[in-house]
Amino acid sequence: MDVTKGQIAKLHTLKSQLRLSDEEYGAALESYGVTSSKNLSYEQAADLIKKLIAMLPKELRKAQEENFMQRRILGQAQGKKKYDELGIRYNHQLQEHYATPKQLRMIEAMWMTSPRVENKNEQAFLKFVKRITGKEKLEWLMLSDIRKIVKGIKSL
Q1: Are residues 73 and 92 in the same domain?
Q2: Domain of 58?
């Protein structure tokens, strides 16, 4: 998938905030094998955005990270929703469906909006999911895991 206009805008904003010279920004792009942000893939742009956010001063970084996680600049400018790339999947060995993208968005939203959750960030959410299901990545969750997570969030 190609880089989105929103990602390009974000990269240029970060370049300005970090006061990167054209040479420094060009070197960052070259590490991905391109000379222009327009030639990045969707995933490469997302990775570069994360790296540039990490370079920001602490007060700016916190605001940018919250914005990045909530909006997921990874494609929403074109109507693509988070986790949609996973699609509907089935595990033939376990004879069970994986969680759908909509279910993954639902449990994440439950976590981020629950008044009982103290740390409303992705890292805390993933740690909670691992504690409940034993799975380190959301992509590995099955339908049965979703029920456990919903029950766990409600019982906090």
Answers
A1: no
A2: 5-78
pTM above 0.70, yes or no: no
Burial of residue 54 (number of CB atoms within 10 Å: 0-12, 13-18, 19+): exposed
SS3 94: coil
Cα 36 from Cα 149, distance rounded (Å): 42
The residues with which 91 forms a beta bridge, in sequence order, are 96
* Phi-psi group of 83: left, alpha or beta (phi > 0 → left; psi -120 to 50 → alpha; rest → beta): left
The answer on pLDDT for 107 being more than 90 is yes
Chain centroid to Cα 91, Å, comes to 24
CA distance 84 to 107: 15
Looking at the fold, whether 9 and 74 belong to one and the same domain comes out as yes
| DSSP letter (8 states) at residue 82 | T
d(CA 35, CA 20): 15
Q: What would the DSSP string read from start to end of 53-111?
A: HHHS-HHHHHHHHHHHHHH-TTTGGGTPPTTGGG-S-EETTTTEEBPPHHHHHHHHHHH
